[in-house]
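Q: What does the assembly look like in three dimensions?
Context provided by user:
Components: two
Sequences:
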Amino acid sequence: MRLKLLLTSARVWQFPRGMASMTSKGTLAPASILAESWSIAAEGYDEIFVPRFKPWTDNALALLGSTEFKLPAGDVLVPTCGPGHELPLVAELLKNRNVRGTDLAPGMIDVAQKRCEGNPRLSCAVEDAMAPSGEYAALFSVFGLQQLPDHAQAIQAWTRCLKIGGVAVVIYWPMGTGVEKRGPWAHWGRLLRAALGDGARRGVQGWEDALPSAIESAGGEVLFSHPLKYRIECRALRRNQLQRATRHRRDVGTVIASARWRGTYWFICAQGRTRHSCSMP
Amino acid sequence: MTECGPWHALRLKKGDDFVDGLRDDFLAPYAVDAPLVHDPTARVLVFRRKS
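A: Here is the predicted structure of the complete assembly.
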């Protein structure tokens, strides 16, 4: 069931088994297109979106490192790891544990592999997050779940790949107005719905409501679930400028975010009130 | 979002002309070179395997 070769001008990517026949239930694009798309977009995503989403990543890391969780012995899985930026962060947080990242897109794993080099505790592989292999003490995923073709099935698989007592920290984008009622993403969504109708839908209606029962049916228990809002500020809308402009403001807490803008690194502190900048070499 | 993000897949599925055709409508409400600010809300889900 699993073999698909995707030819591009630059390389040949071999997909893992099962992906070619994966259905695209409720998603805008089938898995083969997603894998190709994210492979092409990998380096740009790493440059633009990784810093933009850093506040959410930092929050997830803080949760994973919380002392209230008594994790069993074992490794950590980072499904939908993208360019692997979280892998060294998780390894630094949970010392003496191996961290394994997986992603559907070979291009993403190419980038992630560079981050794994030189650290024997890190590894990454092309793997379908709908069917993770192995057993883990913890699972960490930021902004991957909403892209999967069957969210309830995915969260069940993620629950089952945990050891007894193992903990998962998952952050995802909810659908529709759950993300934002106004703003550019909502605006974009309205344009797509006008152009594509139901074809613009990214997920089965109400899939989020099914997650808790899916976790429980797989032997898990939800410890907590809550919204998490941060500010994203793009400095410009023109394409070449947009790719260099991100800033974050944290609503609560003390995490510092950084972003690159015209050769300058900006460090924005909590509540976005204190800023320091320094020129980079 | 359509170059390096989740909507790049739309370019592969529908073509660059389709996506680029939405660009002017997308930019219409926003001032050129003005910061684009928004506050998207994600969801955090923490769960444990108990059996």
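Follow-up: Chain A touches chain B through 77 residues (CB under 8 Å).
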